[in-house]
């Protein structure tokens, strides 16, 4: 598959200038990210663009946020996306970047009530193009460099059909008099504040809301110890202590000795974590 590869800020600036010179005011856009699956934290790993002529892969790992904003926050470029909410949240909370001037097709798919609402199914239904759903790329480590050609192809497939799909879907919305609710939902997506509440990292753990105040204090200490070691050794937090075990430790301090660590945690590191957990719980109880 032929595509343009951009890996530095000067090339990205040049590409955006070329878009402006050619009068391109609409692109298809998607991103790939790391979200505590292979390493610690969330991180923008890849940006895919289709401008109607060329597929473009932007490697953000070597590009500063201010330069990336020239793309994402450019209000003069309409960005056709699919189910943009998670991308908006990730960029807002990791890089303080907002994606502006979005046309998200997912609300249209919901209004039109497609049987299957994932992008590949909608592309197959409307365009007769059957993309291979390679599950391994749904859990792919997008921080890996160099990227395989198969991974790049998978990533580009999420954008190269969006502009054609947009025309088909907008025509259906118009025919069914659904333009207004579609535009409203798009405005709601863009106007939503995606800034996460710091409390969410605790509240989203199953069982936390049912704990008493004293138990919540213990939970937070255990949770923060897990975060400390995950960040220190660049591991997903669940590789340090599984989230279900966080509640088990709160309910029974003796469970600390029953923690089953993953292979990524050495025996020496496991002993260090156990010692810190026991010390912290003694001080709290």
Describe the 3D structure:
The chain is of the alpha/beta class and 285 residues long. It folds into 2 domains: 4-191, Ribonuclease H-like superfamily/Ribonuclease H (Nucleotidyltransferase, domain 5); 200-284, DNA polymerase, domain 1. The protein is 49% helix and 12% strand. The chain has helices spanning 9-22, 65-72, 85-95, 106-111, 119-127, 149-157, 162-175, 179-191, 200-203, 213-232, 237-240, 243-251, 267-284; strands at residues 4-6, 26-35, 42-50, 55-58, 78-81, 102-104. It has a 6-stranded mixed beta sheet with strand order 1-4-3-2-5-6. Helix 1 packs parallel to helix 2, helix 10 packs across helix 12 (243-251) and helix 10 runs antiparallel to helix 13. The N and C termini lie far apart (61 Å). The mean pLDDT is 95.
Number of helices: 13
> Radius of gyration, Cα only, in angstroms?
22 Å
CATH names the topology of the largest domain as Nucleotidyltransferase, domain 5
Which second-level CATH architecture of the largest domain applies?
2-Layer Sandwich
Tell me the total number of β-strands. 6
CATH class of the largest domain, please?
Alpha Beta
Average pLDDT, all residues: 95
Name the CATH superfamily classification of the largest domain.
Answer: Ribonuclease H-like superfamily/Ribonuclease H
The side-by-side strand order for the widest beta sheet comes to 1-4-3-2-5-6
Structural class: alpha/beta
What is the CA-CA span between the terminal residues?
61 Å
Number of domains: 2
Note poorly predicted spans.
none
Strand content: 5-15%
Helix content: 40-55%
Gross morphology is elongated
């Amino acid at each position: 598959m032929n595509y343009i590869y951009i890996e530095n800020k000067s090339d990205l600036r040049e590409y955006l200038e070329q878009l402006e010179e050619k009068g391109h005011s609409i692109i298809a856009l998607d991103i790939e990210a790391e979200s505590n699956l292979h390493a610690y934290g969330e991180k923008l790993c890849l940006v895919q663009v289709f401008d109607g002529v060329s597929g473009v892969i932007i490697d953000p790992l070597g590009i500063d946020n201010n330069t990336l904003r020239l793309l994402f926050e450019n209000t003069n470029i309409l960005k056709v996306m699919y189910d943009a909410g998670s991308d908006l949240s990730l960029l807002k909370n990791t890089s303080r970047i907002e994606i502006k001037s979005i046309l998200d097709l997912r609300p249209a798919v919901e209004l039109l009530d497609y049987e299957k609402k994932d992008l590949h199914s909608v592309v197959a239904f409307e365009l007769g193009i059957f993309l291979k759903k390679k599950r391994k790329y749904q859990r792919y480590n997008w921080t890996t460099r160099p990227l395989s050609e198969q991974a790049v192809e998978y990533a580009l497939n999420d954008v190269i059909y969006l502009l054609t799909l947009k025309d088909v879907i907008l025509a259906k919305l118009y025919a069914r008099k659904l333009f207004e609710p579609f535009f409203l939902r798009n405005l709601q997506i863009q106007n939503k504040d995606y800034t996460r509440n710091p409390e969410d990292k605790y509240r989203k753990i199953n069982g936390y809301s049912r704990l008493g105040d004293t138990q919540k204090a213990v939970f937070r200490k255990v949770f923060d110890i897990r975060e400390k070691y995950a960040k220190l050794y660049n591991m997903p937090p669940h590789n340090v202590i599984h989230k279900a075990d966080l509640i088990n430790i709160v309910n029974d301090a003796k469970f600390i000795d029953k923690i089953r660590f993953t292979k990524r945690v050495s025996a020496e590191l496991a002993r260090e974590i156990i010692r810190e957990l026991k010390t912290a719980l003694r001080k709290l109880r």
